[in-house]
Amino acid sequence: MSTLWGCGQVMGDTNVATGTITSAYDFQKYNVAAVFFEILIGNQDVAKNHIFHISGCSIFEYDFNGIRSWAEAWTVTKSPFYGMFVYPISWLLVNISSGLSGSGDPTNGVSIIFSIIFTTLIIKLITLAFTFKAQQNQEKMQSVQMKTAEVQAKYKHSRDPSAKQKQQMELMAIYKKEGINPIAAFIPMILSMPFILAMYNVMKSTNILKNTTVGYIQLVEQPWGMITQGHFMYLIIILIYVPTQLVSMLLPMFLNRSRQKIKTKESKAALKKQVIMQSVFILMFVFYVCIAPSGVGIYWIISGLLQIIQTISFHCYNKQKRNRYKKNGTINTPFSTKIKKIFVKSETVQPKRIR
């Protein structure tokens, strides 16, 4: 809800855009098109940019707010999104960069890269705390998709309502047997969206980050726009991001495929469908990276690498757990199921007859 609130404010809320936009080009040129305020974190001499527009013989200055504290992030924008996500992430990036820089200069390119790494790691840990169960059952979700595809193919040409009901019952039985909630698969993606949108706003609104250059790459510039102007150094972000995102999104699928022997035609069709859907998502993300600030692209590259490490870690953990259960001759039964079995067993025990 807070994310939707923030997106709505960008479209023209006076609490975020305090002045009338005379020329959208000027805002794009000076990289303040995302939000109409600046976060002034850092040294005391950090001052708000002054952007002017010339109209005939008159000069107008764009009026946008300067935010120096967390309290102002709430009171000035009047939005939980900028208070809960944008300002804290901006504060983390600037302060970590200042701490890592020997000179205390937060605009140092090397310290900024490491600050993005540490900030991304913190964000990953926060989201993992809420999505641990879903991440742990990632392989199960992949295997369930194969089984559900077979059930759907079984009733594909049936229009009988009773057959559709049987299909739903069989699907629910599969989810119950595996001990997973199908809705839980979307939780990691939903929780990651506020941080992605917040990082976009952070790069566009934080005064110090807008003036930071990593090598020849300025964090606030859009890669595709700079490439079309002949700055081919920005092509590195796209070339690194594409394979990273490919591996990050397709790795769980192929790890599960190596564990399972796909024999049926339905299973192969389900895998093909998954690959197509993931490819469409990847193309959408590549488009977004091309038009987003370069700092967002760097954040996504680091996030993708951490996601690969996380996927492999959970795969190895689940593999060891399966081997342990196999060695001990036990199965992974949910705790709630074990409790139910105990009570059912105690209720069905018949007293012995005394002769």
Structure in words:
It is a single chain. The chain has a domain of 103 residues. The protein is mainly alpha-helical. The protein starts with a helix and ends in a 7-residue tail after the last helix. The strands form three sheets. Strands 1-4 form a two-stranded parallel sheet. The chain has a two-stranded antiparallel sheet with strand order 2-3. The chain has a two-stranded antiparallel ribbon with strand order 5-6. About 5% of the residues have low confidence.
Poorly predicted regions are 17-28, 30-34
Report the sheet-strand fraction.
Answer: 5-15%
Record the strand order, biggest sheet. Answer: 1-4
Amount of helix: 55-70%
> Mean of the pLDDT scores?
75
The rounded distance between the terminal residues' Cα atoms is 70 Å
Number of helices: 14
Helix and strand element order: HHEEEEHHHHHHHEEHHHHH
Shape: elongated
* Strand tally: 6
Q: Could you tell me the radius of gyration in angstroms?
A: 26 Å
Major sheet attributes:
2 strands, parallel
Structural class: mainly alpha
Write the layout of secondary structure elements.
Layout: H1 2-10, H2 24-29, E1 37-39, E2 52-55, E3 58-61, E4 65-67, H3 70-75, H4 80-100, H5 109-136, H6 138-154, H7 161-178, H8 187-205, H9 207-210, E5 213-214, E6 217-218, H10 223-228, H11 235-259, H12 265-291, H13 294-328, H14 335-348
Helix pairs in contact: 1-4, 4-5, 4-8, 5-8, 5-13, 6-7, 6-11, 6-12, 8-13, 11-12, 11-13
